[in-house]
Amino acid sequence: LERTFSIIKPDATRRNLTGKINAKFEDAGLRIVAQKRILMTKAQAGEFYGVHKDRPFYDELCEFMSSGPVVVQVLEGENAIAKNREVMGATNPADAAAGTVRADFAESVGENSVHGSDAPETAAVEIAYFFAGTELVG
Ligand code: GTP
Ligand code: MG
């Protein structure tokens, strides 16, 4: 089984959508093996999104990700990385397929309700950034 890292972003926690989003993950066969609600500092968000530091939206993204609580989580399942990205839908909600998290809930391309790792290497780094191995219970 594969594991991926997921974040329910501030726009979604603000609207009490954590349960509805988790239901989509679980309905798709993903198991939530770790989960906690945290408030990221802007510096923490900046480090987490370091790969995007030269993109024009970087500052806005770090500001947004530290603007309210997020739920960080580890999802486990067969092909969890690809499956999670399928459930999330396209980055821009206008392009997201019907029934995906972003089609149903995202407010804009920036405030798009969820993050999900894009490859096994990034999943491993992102999980380790927020969780100790003992916090993952499969
Ligand atoms: P993540 O799972 O969050 O990484 O989404 P993604 O892989 O679909 O998108 P990408 O890695 O390209 O961008 C990371 C995040 O930056 C997105 O999820 C958005 O929150 C934000 N972002 C991407 N493009 C834009 C943009 O054009 N404007 C703004 N404001 N934010 C953007
Ligand atoms: Mg990405």
From TrEMBL:
Annotated signal peptide: none
Family annotation (Pfam families): NDK
EC number: 2.7.4.6
Enzyme class: transferase
Keywords: ATP-binding, Cytoplasm, Kinase, Magnesium, Metal-binding, Nucleotide metabolism, Nucleotide-binding, Phosphoprotein, Transferase
Limits of the Nucleoside diphosphate kinase-like domain: 1-138
Protein's GO biological process: CTP biosynthetic process; GTP biosynthetic process; UTP biosynthetic process
Source superkingdom: Bacteria
Cofactor(s) needed: Mg(2+)
A GO cellular component entry from the record: cytoplasm
UniProt subunit comment: Homotetramer.
Family membership: Belongs to the NDK family.
Database matches in HAMAP family: NDP_kinase (MF_00451)
Function comment: Major role in the synthesis of nucleoside triphosphates other than ATP. The ATP gamma phosphate is transferred to the NDP beta phosphate via a ping-pong mechanism, using a phosphorylated active-site intermediate.
Name of the protein in its database record: Nucleoside diphosphate kinase
Organism of derivation: Antarcticimicrobium sediminis
Gene transcribed to yield this protein: ndk
